[in-house]
Amino acid sequence: MIDPHVHLRDWAQSQKETLAHGFSVAWRAGLSAVFEMPNTDPAMTSRETLQRRIADADRALESLDGAGGLFHGIYGGITADPDQVRHIAAARDELFPRVVGLKLFAGHSTGRMGVVTVAEQDLVWKTLAGAGYRGVVTVHAEREDLLEPERFSRDRPETWSDARPGLAEIASVQTQIALAEAAGYRGTLHIAHVTLPETARIIAAEGPGLPFRLTGAATPHHLMLTREDRQIVNPPLRSEKSRSELVQSLVRGDLAWLESDHAPHTARDKAEGAAGLPGIPGFRRVAEELLRGLVSPERFEAITGGTVREVFDLPRDLLRPNPLAREGAFGAAEYRELAREYPLDPYSGPWCASC
Ligand SMILES: [Zn+2]
């Protein structure tokens, strides 16, 4: 199993989580690989920071009993500077498969990596196309100009979803598709953490007609939780109707895979309103609890790693099987044990009666 979207912190944010801790939890959840996002502190936006991260991660993996078999892939971060975009695309090609792809924050989230204006995004896609980049670009798609921060009130956390409306996601996805197509982009455009079935339908409908590959993914929290669970996360949780239809989007294949968007914080940071939830235990829990009953064994394999291997073009034999991935090895007790490693458990809602 592969979780292709995690934020492992460390460096200046080691109070939130360290690489070694994240790797240990990932291995115990049965994963063979995690792909890490670049909005670390400092951000992974240069060849030098990527190489420093790889060295630190290798040391962390070596220090771990058993978890040393985990594959750690990382993303290079895209900024609004075309020279940096060329540099990071070349670094990805040079350091692939360890550097698996590039990340574009087409909307601000945690960190300061937003490339938020359409003019800046247009330049990014043109630069990537001009450089002949053929790898994956994963996009956080929320249109900054459609956010309505004044609709959020701290004593009603469910209003986070009003402040970051679904229209901001849909419009950003449409913008990124149009810009990439106009630029002549020929790699893969991946829409991270889709929150709405409408977005999933756009991806499924438009993908086949495009000159590049278009994919989307769902997270455990958008599949299992609703705005009424009052968790602060970007992009936000939606209604129960959207949640249940999003499950069908993944089952049907409108969305390609499951990704956790694991983003742990300290209890104090959460109390102060930090956006993000721990997600690696939830990734496995959703796989076991939800998907096994809903999809064929083949589709299950595709959703939890097979399609990622294919789309990222990972070399055969890169990943080692994790013995803890065997069917039925991760039940409510195992989930509880791993969830305790983080200051809050987002999955104590009614869906998981046995948790
Ligand atoms: Zn993320």
Please explain how this structure is put together.
The chain has one domain: TIM Barrel, CATH 3.20.20.140. Mean pLDDT is 93; it is low at 350-355. Strand 3 (71-77), helix 3 and strand 4 form a beta-alpha-beta unit. With 355 residues, the chain is α/β, with parallel strands linked by helices. The protein has 13 helices and 8 strands. The structure holds zinc ion. Zinc ion binds at residues 5, 7, 37, 261, 263.
Averaged pLDDT: 93
Can you tell me the CATH superfamily? Metal-dependent hydrolases
Number of beta strands = 8
Main β-sheet description: 8 strands, parallel
User: How are strands sequenced across the largest beta sheet?
Assistant: 1-2-3-4-5-6-7-8
The CATH first-level class comes to Alpha Beta
Give me the strand/helix succession: EHEHEHEHEHHEHEHHEHHHH
Using only C-alpha atoms, the radius of gyration works out to 19 Å
**CATH topology grouping:** TIM Barrel
Keywords:
TIM Barrel; binds zinc ion; alpha/beta; 8-stranded parallel sheet; 355 residues; globular; 41% helix
Please write out the topology.
Elements: E1 2-6, H1 19-28, E2 33-36, H2 47-62, E3 71-77, H3 82-95, E4 99-106, H4 118-130, E5 136-141, H5 160-163, H6 166-183, E6 188-191, H7 197-206, E7 213-218, H8 220-224, H9 240-252, E8 257-258, H10 267-271, H11 280-294, H12 297-311, H13 332-339
Parallel strand pairs: 1-2, 2-3, 3-4, 4-5, 5-6, 6-7, 7-8
The protein binds zinc ion.
The site of zinc ion has 5 residues, from loops.
